Target: Bifunctional PIG-L family deacetylase/class I SAM-dependent methyltransferase
Amino acid sequence: MTGPWLRDPPPRPLDLGILGHRVVVVAAHPDDETLGAGGLMRAVHESGGQVELVVATDGEAAFPDLDGPARDALAATRRRETDDALAALGLSGVPVHRLGMPDSALDADTLATALEPLLRDADAWVAPWAGDPHPDHTAAGLAAAAASPVTATGWTYPIWMWAWLEPDDPSIPWSHAHAHPLDETARTAKRRALACYASQTGGPAPIVPPDVLAHFDTGTEVVFRTPPGGSAPRERFDTLYAGDDGDPWATRTSWYERRKRAVLLASLPRERYRHAAEPACGTGALTVELAERCDRLDASGFSPAAVAATRGSVDGVPVIRAALPHPDALPDGIDLAVVSEVLYYLDDATLAATVDRLADAVLPGGDIVIAHWRGWPAEAPRDAEATHRELLDDPRFVPLVTHVDEDFLLHVLRRA
Model:
């Protein structure tokens, strides 16, 4: 990024490891993929990942005054340009799925239906940003998000944002921005790839003129993490807990989990609590230790398998099936609520209702513990920092303890 687009602080670096092995890139038109994510595609491929490209339209309506035969010829040209651009990026063997949908009339629902089988086993998808000021880009971004499996991380790239919006436009999700730097070899390869799209960059009235093209030759590509819009579905957790050992996050054995429990228990301001609640109790690894600090502890879980696992782990603690923000998960009159690794899975409305329920359930002077992994699960609508901010900014809660490390974020708050 250059000039007014420079950010302070800059977008965080993109860790290719987050993308996983199979990455499906979606383009509304031939050239979108190279403009917005050519370097990223190349990097995933060079790291041993599997890249696939889906091109929704052939871009035949780039010049609206063309007649039918001329549009057909332009579509054929743009298909060849895509092949040449991929070769220039070192991606000749990448599978390309050309859907042939109508250019400048892309329908999000129709595209989503076509994308579902192509995204089914993807670890990540990369598509045009739905906020980009082009209706086909909007449709492509919405379709990819709708068709995505819950286990895949979503990423979107802007195209016309750079030319048609201002850097401080409130619609731009800078808080979700990640930067992928291109070394000189990758930058040169991207320039060669873009030069292959002569139908768009050449002629007396190019679709992508030099001043717009300059935004894609900065040596940095920007993508936005695009989380799911709804809460993580219960079926996802049922599947995880149905695994061989019934402990999908190795809560009983992993150093991360054991260390987090130790930090959490050490952060409790009081030696003993009268009545505590632990929603989303998982396998009960924390429940066992928390029960030793409470006269009464109510535990609950979202998944029947998790409830069964906790019941088998601890004696003397009632464990029920309940989902946040139900009062059964957070009963009235508690003086401690421990909510770990669950709030970031809730959509905005459910999180807001859960925060309200915490304020109602926890007695004034009582404590609330929230702890979450900082890696942002694919199924989660937001990351740990954004999740914790919802409570930290709420005047009903007073922060007492803050713990931040490279793995997890933990806060203890007191009900005001």
